[in-house]
Records
---
Amino acid sequence: MLPTPELVKSYIVAGLDCRHIEVEGDGQHFTAVIVSDAFAGKRLIQRHQLVYAALGDRMREEIHALSMKTLTPEEFQK
């Protein structure tokens, strides 16, 4: 069974406190806009690592590709 955008969203939200999240995808390739206070003061790679940590093994087993924009609430408002 291929994961849905809603399922990927639930995985991320379960492991990362998000102020806003949008996920789109076709079951293997997904795009996401993720807004979290946890990204404050972090470089892009560190932000992505937080999301990958929230997804855990699902990133290797269920999700083929994830393209993401990771923003702080202040960056999202701009």
---
Amino acid sequence: MINFNEKKGFICDMDGVIYHGNKILPSVADFIGWLQRTGKEFLFLTNNSGSTPKELQQKLARMGLDVPEKHFYTSALATAAFLKEQSPGCSVYAIGEAGLFNALYDAGITMNDVNPDYVVMGEGKSYSLDSLTKATNLVLKGARLIGANSDVSGPIENGITPACRALVAPIEMATGTQAYFCGKPNPLMMRTGLKLLGCHSGEAVMVGDRMDTDVISGLESGMSTVLVLSGVSTMETLKTYAYRPTVVLDGVGDIVRMAEATV
């Protein structure tokens, strides 16, 4: 079990933990209120590469949740930081949404659809056979393949939607090239999250709805882990993994109830 009152920082996924699509999940307002009221450091560390931190802040505001922009960090930001570190001033051919493009531009990375250093894949409606074909041929010409995150699918209000890993797969298969993924469970993103919180791993909790990104990233970073059953994973899917979260809860509201019960 976890004594949540003793933990200094909380890193939380968003899709399937805080909301589904445009619908807030039960007891989320209580959870965020508890984090703020008790002075916890917290960060929404999301593999969603399509939205900027400002857009995510505004999305929660429309749901009645007041969370400052500084509490959001995305796989798009992690991807841009990785490229800036690896190859300052590089050029990319990118497929994705505003969150990815803004992060790349802010990192001094330019767009190039002729001879880019990298092909960068995120999620987005701009994904098409034409963009996929261009990306495939650019990789064959020598561009290195980067994925913003390794999520295969993501929860929506009426089911799931293919996510970045599924969208990158055709390029990998057509070129024989394996992509490098910058989002969770990449430890680079987790170390950044802990640094932003000002926490050591033993002082922090990772909360998510996915065994294959959230729980494994927290576990391998030395954090306590909470799997919530409000998103993708179920008790049945839990059985298919060799590792286990520290605790399994129905949703983030249970964190508040457990914390208040141990005061």
